[in-house]
Design goal:
The protein contains three helices and five strands. By secondary structure, the protein is of the alpha+beta class.
């Protein structure tokens, strides 16, 4: 039996709105993947998903795409990357990933452009530290 908290988590993933729910915990519970992230929902440059520094996340782009894949599955959409760029914002390194989403409905196909923002300040340039 699915409890009310499970329904809220699933609905949050479907809608792409997490409110007070922790994205890291949602992804861990629903996909058994523990990403080294904190921070926001990634829906704006001022609310990015923040990567914590670890020994393995200097190739953060793979983590970004895995997070987007999980969100796509949860939201029942397909997506593809349109562009990606590293920005400076308030002293932080922000990776902006622009995607095109497609949601197939019984009578229509809905296509949208969305931006996701990742604070990669703790990861940028780390590949050369090894």
């Amino acid at each position: 039996m699915i409890n009310n908290d499970d329904l809220k988590r699933k609905q949050a993933l479907i809608e792409g709105k997490f409110g007070n729910l922790n994205l890291r915990e949602l992804l861990k519970q629903d996909f058994e993947m523990d990403f080294p992230i904190t921070g926001g929902q990634g829906n704006s440059i001022d609310n990015p998903i923040v990567f914590e520094r670890t020994d393995s996340n200097y190739y953060y782009v793979g983590y970004e795409y895995s997070i987007l894949k999980c969100l796509g599955i949860g939201r029942r959409i397909t997506w593809k990357v349109i562009s990606q760029e590293l920005l400076k914002h308030n002293g932080k390194d922000i990776d902006k990933v622009k995607i095109e989403t497609t949601q197939t409905m019984p009578t229509q196909i809905i296509t949208q452009i969305e931006n996701y923002y990742f604070d990669v300040t703790q990861c940028v340039g780390r590949a050369f530290e090894k």
